[in-house]
TrEMBL record:
Name used for this protein in its record: non-specific serine/threonine protein kinase
Organism classification: Eukaryota, Viridiplantae, Streptophyta, Embryophyta, Tracheophyta
Catalytic activity: L-seryl-[protein] + ATP = O-phospho-L-seryl-[protein] + ADP + H(+); L-threonyl-[protein] + ATP = O-phospho-L-threonyl-[protein] + ADP + H(+)
Family (UniProt): Belongs to the protein kinase superfamily. Ser/Thr protein kinase family.
Subcellular localization(s) per the UniProt record: Membrane
Binding site for ATP: K600
PROSITE patterns: PROTEIN_KINASE_ATP (PS00107), PROTEIN_KINASE_DOM (PS50011), PROTEIN_KINASE_ST (PS00108)
E.C. numbers: 2.7.11.1
PANTHER family for this protein: OSJNBA0070M12.3 PROTEIN, TRANSFERASE, PROTEIN KINASE RLK-PELLE-LRR-IX FAMILY-RELATED
Transmembrane segments annotated in the record for this chain: 478-500
Keyword tags: ATP-binding, Disulfide bond, Glycoprotein, Kinase, Leucine-rich repeat, Membrane, Nucleotide-binding, Receptor, Repeat, Serine/threonine-protein kinase, Signal, Transferase, Transmembrane, Transmembrane helix
GO cellular component: membrane
Pfam families named in the record: LRR_1, LRRNT_2, PK_Tyr_Ser-Thr
Coiled coil segments of this chain: none
Length: 927
């Protein structure tokens, strides 16, 4: 009787324990499920009744534990409770297509499938994925998250096969860890469409077995860019959706993509001929190519392939509209000759039709034709920013007499085939980075090879395949430098702002981001305020810090608080007013570090109710963060606070050109501008506008050029300002219609009449400015007799008559006899700029070409260089930069080197050979 008792007791205890344990664990899931049920605000849909949660609808259990929750499309409201993480056996959680709100809570590590897409969740922790090693399938698309980077913690999900994060507010770059750099061996589906991503497709994608890549429709200002070359090595792809981005370059060879079926490349800036590997893909079912700059013959796809219907008409540059019809032999030769240059977009943009020597005004950029017989006589690719190799194919252009490739970043050798060109008289390859022996040309051929440090030397070892990549590296140097500087500056900002003790560590970090030897070159590049612009702006270009994400992922400029701006302008004191414009009042201010700034306070009253003013404001930020040039005023930051909209610029101490042209007569204190100064200013402005018109990646039209929008520094060098009316030309279009805006007297006639704008609208305004600079008269001068009120009309009339010519010159200028020629040249240029028909007006690049030699002739000799090319002492860099320089021992950044490029400015090509690096920059931006 005594024996069984302990046994019985024991078993009871054991039973109880088991019971309690199981009840306890089930209780756990039950209580979590009860919390979930309550949190979901279910109407009657869920039918989660009864005490056994495993019998609940939409729930799956295993051994009493919840393993799956499928509550998709149930019109659910509410938010998810943080207790969900306690469902430690949960493998599947799907709540997609509901109206759930709030943050996404942490989930248990057992989870394999997560679908929370199409809800109203507002955030997800960055470390959500830490330890989530079982996740295979992730869908978080279409939630109004606040902006974030693709989280690094995702790298814990090594089993991932599918990641879908469309319209999930991602900013920054596509992380390299989705490619070879990361842990995902089995990733087959990656969808990142409709985010705010920027930068290039990661090189680490090369060789991975991804099957579907969807990155279309980025909404960031820059979108995804660079080439799509890496797709060549992603041979498992079935679907490629990269449309609606800023990709450039050619479509890569796709001949190994035997499963590829759906290819959407439309709405990019792709150039070059369609590779036969694409047209002959047997697996292809859909291909979309509209709205690129694709060249050559319009491709013929096999029956059954759906092609987007606007492929031919929709802004491509096919040589004909007849699908499958070959291009003329001359066009084919030209296209194959520019292939090794990567089919530059500039050329693609301008080369329309099937005849490189068209009649009329549609001349092909870089191609000069002789009149009879009509044929190509000169290839002029000078100063085009090209990289890559010189193609031997040029040799087939037997009618050519001059091959001009000077001032680019070309690499490789001079092909010996060129020696066979029968009519060749001149080959100019100066200022590139060519190497190798110069082949022997006929003695009468002039061969110019200056400025190629390695010419005559052997090719660098292992350079067989290296040529191209070297070219590419160069192409990106500017971007890289800007990126580096921006990155450095972000770090600096952190250092300065937060007083982080580990300053040295940070800087080590900087050097890890690779500021290699090139660093001593970049002061050249950013001389003249550019370095300051970039630095003060805090990484406006190229990088994007999460902290600045509040601005829609766009600007990345420094955000000033209204308090700071009130303080530095003495509460917008009248005394500090620098000027008033159509959109607001500009105040002077000085930051604590001594940086002088100009603050434009938009007048919301004037600008009308809200939206319109806001769009001007955003337009200006958008433009100025995108275009940065030494002759465009730099935006340092902005402030948006309630109704207050403020823009912060670099301060231009000498104020607007209008003051110097028109006001000095009354105000005896200031001297009238000498002619040579005016020439230099005219050239500065021309260069700034030329850059806006196309040297930047896209085409911008200023629409409001006038002397009051041209600002002068203490060195009397000019920068164009006021970008409130700037319009970005829609891709692939030359003109478009807008609401008329601008200033009377400067409006091109066709614009005033029809509202159609082209870059020639700016050329017209520029011509008026030239006339004002020559004559000292205002565009509209009501003090003149009726017939002379309109400057352009009067000027044209005076110009016709040789005798009256001297009378147009501003009486305030001392005219030296030998300067008369340059007056005449500029006067004629001004006349052409104001030609009645837009096509009769020159391009801004032509203007630069006319003015540059004049300025060179008139290079001042009387004052010391430092005086003229001066160091903008007024615009001292933030203290942080100095600290950094001191630490890095780079005290040269703003001193000894700063005159070099300016000299280059005059002579176009005289940068010292600081490696090919300087050259490449010179040709891209220094012009
Ligand atoms: C569950 O409860 C709701 C109300 O609480 C009721 O309308 C519904 O009929 C119940 N469903 C089941 C299956 O009992
Ligand atoms: C992205 O989602 C938001 C709402 O979250 C929606 O308003 C917007 O239209 C979506 N964008 C695209 C391109 O689908
Ligand atoms: C493609 O792969 C080859 C071989 O690995 C490599 O040399 C090449 O650079 C890759 N091309 C691209 C565009 O990634
Ligand atoms: C591509 O073009 C086809 C045919 O016009 C169209 O049905 C399809 O929606 C397009 N696909 C994309 C991704 O634009
Ligand atoms: C034009 O030059 C090409 C070679 O560049 C030649 O093949 C062609 O016959 C020439 N055409 C005419 C009309 O002379
Ligand atoms: C791509 O865009 C980034 C900014 O998002 C810019 O810094 C970079 O220079 C661009 N790269 C190219 C090749 O245009």
């Amino acid at each position: 009787m005594q024996k069984p008792e302990p046994c019985f007791l024991l078993s009871i205890i054991v039973f109880l324990c088991v019971f309690v344990l199981s009840v306890h664990s089930q209780n756990d899931d039950s209580s979590v499920m009860a919390i979930l049920k309550k949190a979901l605000n279910s109407k009657s849909d869920l039918q989660w009744n009864g005490s056994d949660i495993c019998k609940w609808k939409y729930i799956q259990c295993n051994s009493g534990r919840v393993t799956a929750i499928h509550i998709s499309s149930l019109n659910l409201q509410g938010s998810l409770p943080k207790e969900l993480v306690q469902l430690s056996q949960l493998q599947t959680f799907q709540c997609n297509n509901n109206g759930l709100t709030g943050p996404v809570p942490y989930m248990p590590k057992s989870l394999q499938r997560l679908a929370i897409n199409n809800n109203n969740f507002n955030s997800m922790p960055n470390d959500f994925f830490i330890g989530m090693t079982n996740l295979v399938d992730i869908r978080i698309d279409y939630n109004p998250f606040s902006q974030w980077n693709v989280p690094d913690s995702l790298q814990d999900c090594a089993s991932l096969t599918s990641f879908s994060g469309m319209n999930a507010s991602f900013v920054g770059k596509i992380p390299g860890f989705f490619g070879k750099d990361g842990p995902f061996q089995g990733l087959v589906y990656l969808a990142l469409c409709f985010n705010y991503l920027e930068g290039e497709l990661p090189g680490s994608f090369s060789g991975i077995s991804l099957e579907r890549l969807l990155v279309n429709g980025q909404q960031s200002m820059n979108k995804l860019n660079g080439t799509i070359a890496v797709l060549k090595n992603m041979t498992s792809l079935k679907q490629i959706w990269v449309h609606g981005n800023s990709f450039i370059g050619q479509i890569p060879d796709l001949s190994n993509h035997d499963q590829l079926s759906d290819v959407s490349l439309r709405d990019n800036q792709l150039t070059g001929v369609i590779p036969p590997s694409l047209t002959s893909l047997t697996s292809l079912t859909v291909v979309n190519l509209t709205n690129n700059y694709l060249q050559g013959s319009p491709p013929m796809f096999k029956d059954g392939v759906r092609v987007d219907n606007d492929m031919v008409n929709g802004n491509n540059r096919f040589c004909t509209k007849d699908i499958g019809k070959p291009c003329s032999p001359l066009v084919n030769t030209l296209l194959s000759a520019v292939e090794p240059l990567g089919y530059p977009k500039k050329l693609a943009d301008s080369w329309k039709g099937n005849d490189p020597c068209p009649r009329g005004n549609d001349e092909w950029l870089g191609i000069v034709c002789s009149a009879s017989p009509v044929n190509i006589s000169v290839i002029n690719f000078q100063h085009m920013g090209f990289s890559g190799n010189i193609s031997p194919k040029f040799a087939s252009l037997t009618s050519v007499t001059k091959l001009l490739f000077a001032n680019n970043s070309l690499t490789g050798i001079i092909p010996s085939e060129l020696t066979s060109m029968p009519l060749l008289k001149e080959l100019d390859v100066s200022n590139n980075n060519l190497y190798g022996k110069v082949p022997s040309f006929r003695p009468e051929v002039v061969v110019k090879i200056d400025g190629n440090p390695n010419i005559g030397k052997d090719p660098p070892p292992a350079s067989d395949s290296g040529d191209n990549s070297r070219g590419e590296v160069k192409k990106n140097t500017v971007g890289i430098i800007v990126g580096i500087v921006a990155g450095v500056v972000i770090l600096l900002g952190l250092v300065a702002a937060l007083f982080i003790k580990s300053r040295r560590k940070k800087l080590k970090h900087v050097s890890k981001v690779q500021i290699p030897n090139e660093i001593e070159v970049h002061p050249h590049h950013f001389e003249d305020g550019n370095a300051k612009k970039v630095s003060v702006a805090g990484g406006g270009i190229g990088s994007f810090s999460p902290s600045s994400s509040a601005q829609n992922g766009e600007a990345g400029n420094m955000v000033f608080s209204i308090q700071v701006l009130r303080e530095v302008t003495d509460n917008f004191n009248e005394r500090n007013i620098l000027g008033r414009g159509g959109f607001g009042t500009v105040y002077k201010g000085e930051l604590h570090d001594g940086t002088k700034i100009a603050v434009k306070r938009m007048e919301s009253g004037i600008m009308g109710e809200g939206e319109k003013g806001l769009s001007e404001f955003k337009s200006e930020i958008a433009v100025l963060t995108k275009v940065r040039h030494r002759h465009l005023v730099a935006l340092l930051g902005h402030c948006l606070d309630g109704n207050e909209r403020l823009l912060v610029y670099e301060y231009m101490p000498q104020g607007p050109l209008s003051k110097h042209l028109f006001e000095c007569k009354e105000d005896e204190g200031s001297k009238p501008l000498e002619w040579k100064r005016r020439l230099i200013i005219a050239l500065d402005v021309a260069r700034g506008v030329e850059y806006l018109h196309g040297l930047a990646q896209q085409i911008f039209i200023h629409r409001d050029l006038k002397p009051s929008n041209i600002l002068l520094g203490d060195d009397m060098r000019a920068k164009v300002s006021d970008f409130g009316l700037v319009r970005l030309v829609p891709e692939g279009q030359a003109s478009f219609e807008t609401r008329l805006a601008g200033t009377f007297g400067y409006l091109a006639p066709e614009y005033a009449v029809t509202g159609r704008v082209t870059t020639k609208v700016d050329v017209y305004s520029y011509g008026v400015i030239l006339m004002e600079m020559i004559t000292g008269r205002k565009a509209i001068d009501n003090s003149q007799p009726e017939e002379n009120v309109h400057l352009v009309t009067w000027f044209r009339r005076m110009l016709l008559n040789r005798d009256s010519f001297r009378k147009i010159i501003d009486p305030a200028i001392d005219v030296e006899e030998e300067a008369l020629d340059s007056f005449r040249t500029v006067a004629e240029l001004a006349g052409h700029c104001c030609a009645r028909e837009p096509y009769q007006r020159p391009d801004m690049s032509n203007v630069v070409n006319v003015l540059a030699p004049l300025v060179e002739i008139w290079k001042p000799t009387d004052s010391s260089p430092a005086d003229i090319y001066g160091l903008d002492l007024d615009m001292s860099l933030p203290q942080a930069l100095h600290n950094w320089q001191a630490l890095e021992g780079m005290s040269t950044i703003n001193t000894s080197t700063s005159t070099t490029l300016r000299t280059g400015d005059y002579t176009q090509s005289s940068l010292p050979p600081a490696g090919g690096f300087a050259n490449s920059f010179n040709s891209m931006d220094a012009r």
